[in-house]
Amino acid sequence: MSTEEKSLHFIEQIIEDSLESGFPKDKLRFRFPPEPNGYLHIGHAKSICLNFGLGLRYNAPVNLRFDDTNPAKEEQEYVDAIKEDLLWLGFNWAEERYASDYFQQLYDWAVLMIKKGKAYIDSQSSEDMAAQKGTPTQPGVDGPYRNRSIEENLTLFEGMKNGDFPEGSHVLRAKIDMTSKNMLLRDPLMYRVLHRHHHRTGNDWKIYPMYDYAHGESDYIEQISHSICTLEFVMHRELYNWFLDQIYDASKVRPNQYEFARLNLNYTVMSKRKLLQLVQENIVNGWDDPRMPTISGLRRRGYTAKSIRNFCETIGVAKRENVIDVSLLEFCLREDLNKTAPRVMAVLDPVRLLITNYPAGKEEWLEAENNQEDETAGYRKVPFSRELYIERDDFLEVAPAKFFRLSIGDEVRLKNGYIIKGESVTKDSGGVITEIQVTYDEDSRSGSGSEASKRKVAGTLHWVSISHAIEAEVRLYDRLFIDEAPDSHKEKNFLDFMNETSLEVVKGFVEPSLSKVKANDKFQFQRLGYFNVDKDSTASKLVFNKTVGLKDAWEEKGKKEENLLMNTLKEINKYVKEKDGITTDIILKSIIDNIKSIDNYSLIINTIVKNIKNDNNALLFANLILKNSDKVTFKDIELELLTKLFSMSLKSQLVPVRILVIGNLKEDSENLHNFQVQLSELKNSEKNEKVLELLKTI
User: Fold this and answer.
1) From the DSSP assignment, how many helices (H) and strands (E) are in the chain?
2) Which residues contact 32 (CB under 8 A, 6 or more apart)?
3) What is the band of 117 on the pLDDT scale with cuts at 50, 70, 90?
4) Per 3-state DSSP, what percentage of the chain is helix, strand, and coil (rounded to 5)?
5) What ranges make up the beta strands (E) of 522-579?
6) What are 422's strand-pairing partners?
């Protein structure tokens, strides 16, 4: 059977071209260069898999180099976490290096550049320097210190190194071109004064190199052949090469920088600064909170290293930015866990079930398959008795059509057990069901081979025997944000989109086979999803994290919300045509309830924008959303579009539209003054009494 070889991505093609052009294969060398100022996240996983994947493909060394040039933000904790994450993902490095290893060499090169007239000390304030650099359309101008003498520059630079000057007093700048179209070449900073303790060099240094200077020179010291970074560094490449030009020795390998599109994932944030904010403000419980997109958070939640590697391979390496749906990451996880996670039974919202015709005191140990996807997984024994727990939502006294669970008079099968039939219930004083009474068919045990065991019933339920069940804390995690792009809205803080139900802690019961579990053991709770044993778990208190559901609940929710809005627009048509006042009130309440139930901010915004058109029903819909949704404000709509909506609505032939827009304008005091003329004209022409009364209130 022939197999088609996977096509090369563009970075691999660049390397192949280098080799074909005569570059020695044994000189190939790569690096993964994290800054130790936070924990690695899923976006870094793509870069890790790319760089270490190239190392494996070409049998070339890959260095782990920490770009630790900013002691104000870097800590040993982050160094240790990064190393742990890499090893967990399945990658090891050839050499562990640090930019701080090269501080003396970088300083010596900087001195050499000063002597060559390629660098100088600038003593301007940061504000003056920013003004002097110009704008993308206006060239910069030479600063007052650009032509200092070499001797004065050397003296000042040595004083900076010795700690003679306060922070912010002087910087070392490269002397390149203040009129360059690339603003990064307008005499960029090379060194600044920082009286900060460094996690490796202590207080030895009072000056620290800037990233743009240190990064390329570090690549050169390590003889990295292909320096791979993300697209935001495209404009930095020219500067990268300029710094190399100052030190390059033709007998050595000259690094070249190549850029690829970073990973952008919806329903999350990738900024280390914003992730740090979540940690520092205790919005999450640390960097490894299972809701965080950090690798340590994903690991604690129950993600597997293989699923993350498969995800990175699936999305590939591209030159253009795009946003990947988090559902793809969850798909890769389900695909892996489906093959490897043992199936067990757990009940998370229990209600007691009594089998009235099962002998009191009797127990059986039923045979249960561990994983039907793995022939080697084998079987286990689960205890069965007269009193069980089942999920509360697996029962309804009176069931609607297509309810394939337990109800009075209907039959279901208990997984690995017997067919039962709902008979009666017991309720407390508040009407809440406390016990369900059922009968069982003794001849229907699964796998017994009897005629009764082969009988088909509507559904199968999971359960646990009450007398054998182990109590467990179960943490039900969901996405941290309710919006697809929480940090992309100009007038909104990303924290405005926090999912208030991203963590729910419940008391559940699990089968006794889980009594000896260890942290990071993974299971499928049948019919509920995949769960991971949390590090907080002890012998006396089991703690499980929900990793992912069996289905993509968010995709289902998204489709439901889209369909709900589409159907609500149809309800608008009914509302407009209906003549009976009571009926219109009922329809309007239904429309408003639907609007209030929508959580997806982007969906709401897009729906409003789509309905800003010369159509009475559409204008009514847009105004109703603006008035009744608590997810959107007037400031969230572009001013030009909002103005168009208000203007068209005031001219609408539909009375409810005019009433609604006047009400919205009263709430939007910032824009109200812009419509005074149009409102005055409406007062003169309006014939509807309700609209006239409302106009008088403005």
Assistant:
1) 21, 29
2) 47, 48, 51, 52, 62, 63, 64, 65, 86, 93
3) very high
4) 40, 20, 40
5) 522-525, 529-533, 542-548
6) 408, 438
Instruction: Give the count of beta carbons closer than 10 Å to the beta carbon of residue 206.
Output: 17
Phi, psi of 198, rounded to the nearest 5 degrees:
-95, 140
Mean pLDDT of all residues belonging to the chain? 94
CB burial class (10 A; 0-12, 13-18, 19+) of residue 393? exposed
Kindly state the average pLDDT of the residues 110-124.
98
Token match 């090379």: residue? 190
pLDDT tens by residue, 578-610:
888 899 999 999 999 999 998 888 889 889 999
- CA separation for the pair 654, 446 (Å, rounded): 64
Residue 3 confidence (pLDDT) above 50: no
What's 78-144 look like in SS3?
HHHHHHHHHHHHCCCCCCEEEHHHHHHHHHHHHHHHHHCCCEEEECCCHHHHHHHCCECCECCCCCC
Mean of pLDDT values over 450-468 = 95
- Output the pLDDT for position 336: 97
Question: Is the predicted pLDDT of residue 516 greater than 90, yes or no?
Answer: yes
DSSP state letter for 498: B
Q: What is the pLDDT of residues 627-686, one digit of tens each?
A: 999 888 888 888 899 999 999 999 999 999 999 999 899 888 888 888 888 888 888 888
532 HSE (CA, 13 A, CB side): 23
Query: Under a CB-based contact definition with an 8 Å cutoff, are residues 619 and 652 in contact?
Result: yes
Strand partners, 433: 427
Which pLDDT value is given to residue 633? Answer: 86
Confidence of residue 412 (pLDDT cuts 50, 70, 90): very high
Residues with active-site annotation:
35, 262, 272
Average pLDDT over residues 320-339: 94
With CA atoms as reference, report the closest residue to 476 among 538, 526, 546, 376. Answer: 546
User: CB–CB of 97/63 below 8 Å?
Assistant: yes
88-93: list long-range contacts, CB under 8 Å, 24+ apart: 88/295, 88/299, 88/305, 89/45, 89/48, 89/49, 89/295, 89/305, 89/308, 89/309, 90/305, 90/306, 90/309, 91/48, 91/52, 91/62, 93/32, 93/52, 93/62, 93/63, 93/64
Q: Distances in Å between the alpha carbon of 105 and those of 101, 102, 189?
A: 9, 5, 17
Task: Determine the pLDDT at residue 448.
Answer: 92
- Average pLDDT value for residue range 114-143: 97
Three-state SS at 638? coil
Sign of CA dihedral 15, 16, 19, 24: positive
Tokens representing 510 are 């699990």
Supply the angle between the helices 211-221 and 103-115 in degrees, to the nearest 10: 110
| Burial of residue 268, with CB atoms counted within 10 A of its CB: 0-12 exposed, 13-18 middle, 19 or more buried | buried
Q: How confident is the model at residue 1 (pLDDT cuts 50, 70, 90)?
A: very low
Q: Provide the H-helix boundaries in 203-302.
A: 211-221, 237-245, 272-280, 295-301
Query: How far are the Cα atoms of 196, 392, 435, 549 from residue 507, in angstroms, in the given order?
Result: 48, 13, 18, 18
What pLDDT score does 170 carry?
98
Task: Please give the Cα distance from 67 to 353 (Å, whole number).
Answer: 60
Supply the DSSP symbol for 512.
G
pTM of the model: 0.87
Q: Which two tokens stand for residue 552?
A: 């993509």
* Rounded mean pLDDT, 421-447: 97
Go through the chain and tell me how many residues it has.
698
Give the helix ranges, DSSP H, for 249-406: 272-280, 295-301, 305-315, 326-340
Rounded distance between C-alpha atoms, residue 73 and residue 71, angstroms: 5
